[in-house]
Amino acid sequence: MAEPVDHDGALAPRDYPGGPPSEVAGKTAVGYVTRFELAYRQNDEMKSNTDVGTGDERGSYLSRFDISVQNAWVASGPADSSVVRLKYVGSRTIHPGIEFDYITQYVTYYIDSARVVRDRTTRNDFDGTDTLDPDPWVDGEPVACFER
């Protein structure tokens, strides 16, 4: 989790949604993955956008972060699991007011009751919805584990 930044207007680290819901399918799976991705990306952006200025004063920090899901695909995985792919764009503001928009992001999650695995790409040659690209089983990174 990202460390809080002690400045007015700085975002606090976003909490993760906890373990996956008991039924990981359809809209429930998309909602869970969207909340997880928002927390994952915001906390990652907070870590990468905290610079130390002069002395102990942090000079830049994240003051706004958001993603907007453009499309979502859900496929059933083996035994009570799902594979969820999101297509989204995002934006952020870094103090002192520098704004950025993200190119289209594609992220694929594998979720079951015990783990969450994530894989992301920003490639322009994205293979589309007919293939599992990015593939969390090949290039994914386990990002959360839970007791069953």
Model description:
It is a single chain. The chain has 148 residues and is an alpha+beta fold. It contains 2 helices and 8 strands, in the order H-E-E-E-E-E-E-E-H-E. The protein has one domain. 18% of the residues lie in helices and 38% in strands. Strands 3, 4, 5, 6, 7 and 8 form a 6-stranded antiparallel sheet that branches. A two-stranded antiparallel ribbon has the order 1-2. The longest helix has 23 residues, at 26-48. The chain is globular. Residues 1-25 are annotated as: Disordered.
Order of helices and strands: HEEEEEEEHE
Give me the oligomer status.
single chain
Coarse structural class: alpha+beta
Number of domains: 1
β-strand amount: 35-45%
Number of strands: 8
> Helical residue percent?
10-25%
How does the overall form come out from the CA principal axes? globular
The span between the termini is: 23 Å
The description of the largest β-sheet is: 6 strands, antiparallel
Query: How many DSSP H or I helices?
Result: 2
The average pLDDT is 82
Radius of gyration: 17 Å
Short description:
Residues 1-25 are annotated as: Disordered. The chain has helices spanning 26-48, 136-139, and strands spanning 51-52, 58-60, 62-76, 82-94, 98-101, 105-111, 115-121, 141-145.
Characteristic terms for this protein:
six-stranded antiparallel beta sheet, 2 helices, 148 residues, single chain, alpha+beta, two-stranded antiparallel sheet, globular
